[in-house]
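name: query_chain
kind: protein
chains: 1
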Amino acid sequence: MEKQYDIVVIGAGNGGLSAAASASKRGYKTLLIEQHNLPGGFATSFKRGRFEFEPSLHEFCGIGASDDRGDVGMLLDFYGADVEWCKVPEAYRLITRKEGEQNLNVTMPFGIKDYIDKMEGYVPGSRESVEKFFYLAQNIMDALEAIGKSNGKADPKVMMKEHANFLKCAYYPVGKVLRKLKMPIKAQKILGAYWCYTGVDLEEVDFAFYVAMVYKYIAKAAYIPKNRSHGLSVAMDKVIRDNGGDIWYNVKAEKIIMENGKIVGVDTSAGSVKCEHLIPAISPNAVFGEMMDNKYIPNETKQNINARKFGARGFCVYLGLNKTADELGIDEYSYFIYDTMDTVKEVKSAGNFHKEPMQATVCLNRANPDCSPKGTCIMSFTTFYTEDIWANISEDEYVAKKQKIAMEMIAVFEKELNVSLVPYIEEIEIATPITMARYTLNPQGTMYSYAASGNDGLLARLMMISEDQRIPNIRFAGGYGPRLYGYSSTYMSGDLAVKLTIADMAKEKEGK
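structure:
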């Protein structure tokens, strides 16, 4: 217990990097502990042959152009993170395969006006309802900002006066709100393309969570770091060190030291440290289940954790192809390919080993032309599972099973886009939920922490910030924090955790 820190952060994923950057930037003595030898968690890169792959990021929302920053872009500018960004050329291409004559094959642009105009072209008569959607979306964004500034204790009178539309629709599921807007069904389907980024069907995920994501994508466009997520994570490492923060890699946080119901330090594989406040950017299951004595954990905390459902578990296929995207006929960056836009059916299918699962697929070169050697391109295919079904696969079955699913996904893309990929595969890597669990220690390989469903969505977590803190000097960041999951959300979550911690410090000082 020789070293003393104001704030100790556990886990150098997006949330932990952001929290440590925020705390050190604001002048607090900060330590970031990470058991891996690299920062980033999912936000990293890996090499196979002559290709460097992006493991998880499809696109960042909330960055914005240099002269029109979004909330995440402004936060990274505040940190001073030196990151070169590549703009994604279009919002997405959406394809459905099993809706008969109603099958979709549409490409949507960024920019609210352009998006609405394109939607009207695909769905004549949709303009008014889609305009209302984006008007509501702006209202939601304003209200969420107000709630954030209030630390989860927004004044009801102010909310009713200034954010009435938020109170009317934010908590309802997306599907219900779109129907209330009398949006044509086809337009609802096109607008729902991003649903897989929530891992929850549109009849369950709350409108505020979904609309905040869609609005930031369409209004500010999407970006990716030129040097992969690893470049971003390394830039954040530099921010922390430049502001006097310490980072311990290859060090495991083993036990949280408690005295009189308060955290006073952390035992690590490199020794013990004292801390005034703790910000874990890892699973609460690990914190409370493995790192803290049971006698210190409030019953309400145990009940909350046990009641929550793990979110989507990721499955990714990475291809290094020895042809260019132009040569292969791949015209867009981002593709959503579903059987149907009945998202309830799609989520149900994701609970099993559904043949030819839905996919979110990107061709990295379409946003970052120089990301692979000349004459080549990089693609990644992502699907997810809502249940822990990979736990039932034996070691003998494992390799064949993941290869079969990977080839099914590639075959679907080839068929729907009328292209040929398999003959040009130079490198292939496949990551299952078991891979994700191994490298990130997320329970069951979840990439979306706890599912944002029903009464455990974005609004519920934001409004329960104060009530959820049963131990006085701990705040969670990252995907398990109140801002939920996704790259953009976890960066904002790290900063929010520090702001809440600073408020806790002020209360402690007043109490003394």
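note: The chain has a mean pLDDT of 93.
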